[in-house]
Amino acid sequence: THNLPPGLEYLNQLDRIIIHQQVELLGAILGTETSSKYEIKNHLGQRVYFAVEENDCFDRNLCSPIRSFTIRIADNTGREVIRVIRPLRCNSCWFPCFLQELEVQSPPGTIAGYVVQNWDPFLPKFTIQNESKEDVLKIVGPYATCGCFEDVDFEVKALNEMTTIGKISKYWSGFVNNVFTNTANFGIQVPVDLDVRIKAVMIGACFLIDLMFFENSLDGL
């Protein structure tokens, strides 16, 4: 564990990670986008990290689901341990040369890995890469991301896409909560012995999936 990036030691013990978006009442009332804040918890609901999105008002309100951002993730002492960077990219399978790519750093300034969108005419697909841009895992979403009152699962697969080793789930948390606040609640399930750097990249993938498929939705309602 002495070779792990500082602050990621705790991820070494986890096979389930919960990400809960904090409700911004002013934004919910006025219908405007405010900087997103998230709590990252273990399966017992104990907060492990706290995340804050950084961008400007123009990006949030005019470029909403395709906006560029930097998400800074800090541990409970306030030390930044993960940085997620998303440039402004296209969000359509009709532009395969300019699809989504997200960079995850841990510690900040040191590459931990990447999330790269793959072109597919029917399914949401992504590749998880390590710091050397070598493919490690695949993420394959469903044909439809509207849950219709149930969870939506993005399966985490081996590179051959034949073996499922985990999933990223968008939890449906109820009509009233979603209609009036549109908060995000996600769960990540991965093998406990997965490299902690790749676990950090999976957290970045979760943020990307949220913005691409659920930012402006009512979760299938």
UniProtKB/TrEMBL annotation:
InterPro entries: Scramblase (IPR005552). It comes from the Eukaryota. The keyword Repeat does not apply. Keywords: Calcium, Lipoprotein, Palmitate. Its cofactor is Ca(2+). GO terms for cellular component: plasma membrane. Transmembrane segments: none annotated. One of its GO terms (molecular function) is phospholipid scramblase activity. It holds the Pfam family Scramblase. Belongs to the phospholipid scramblase family. May mediate accelerated ATP-independent bidirectional transbilayer migration of phospholipids upon binding calcium ions that results in a loss of phospholipid asymmetry in the plasma membrane. This is Phospholipid scramblase. It comes from Campylorhamphus procurvoides. The lineage of its organism: Eukaryota, Metazoa, Chordata, Craniata, Vertebrata.
